[in-house]
Design brief:
Blueprint (H helix, E strand, L loop, with lengths): L12 E4 L2 E6 L4 E4 L2 H15 L8 E9 L2 E10 L5 E7 L8 H14 L3 E5 L4 E7 L4 E4 L6 H4 L1
Parallel strand pairs: 6-7
Antiparallel strand pairs: 1-2, 2-3, 4-5, 5-6, 7-8, 8-9
Length: 150
């Protein structure tokens, strides 16, 4: 898999049906190892090990319904009360993060109402803080530590 702009981590990976699968510690199951999944697994570990995000407050592939359409949020980070605090959208390293990517995560956030939105393709990482009071947002210079979110 492609080298990412994230620390290197060891993962449980094995071959299955002429492809690779990786163990997702949040979902507690094996999943197909795609380029996007490679980014997800690295970014989740980065959030946990570098930025102090509690694994018990994180979930991958969260189902939500918007206007009758079922969608899936890549990663949801909750606050200590179980309310959505941040959502993360991943793309494969070959996919440029674009306005379309931000439009997608904003649609998810219309349902979840998180305070922070993060996007990563493994090479470039973005985070913005939503200002609900003034109906705006601001991009942060870095991905914040968990204790900076609450």
């Amino acid at each position: 898999m492609q080298q990412l702009n994230l620390p290197e981590y060891q993962f449980n990976i094995k071959m299955k049906n002429n492809g690779f699968i990786i163990f997702d510690s949040l979902r507690k199951r094996w999943v197909k190892l795609t380029p996007e999944e490679w980014v997800r697994q690295h970014f989740v570990r980065f959030l946990q090990e570098v930025k102090g995000y509690p694994p018990e407050l994180m979930n991958n592939e969260i189902s939500l319904t918007q206007n009758g359409i079922k969608r899936r949020c890549d990663t949801l980070v909750a606050d200590r009360y179980g309310c959505p605090l941040a959502i993360v959208e991943y793309k494969a390293p070959t996919v440029l993060v674009s306005q379309k990517t931000f439009d997608q995560i904003v649609r998810y956030n219309m349902v979840l109402k998180a305070q922070y939105l993060m996007v990563s393709n493994g090479l470039n990482h973005y985070c913005c803080k939503i200002d609900y009071e003034n109906n705006g947002y601001s991009f942060l210079k870095d991905i914040p530590c968990y204790n900076q979110l609450t």
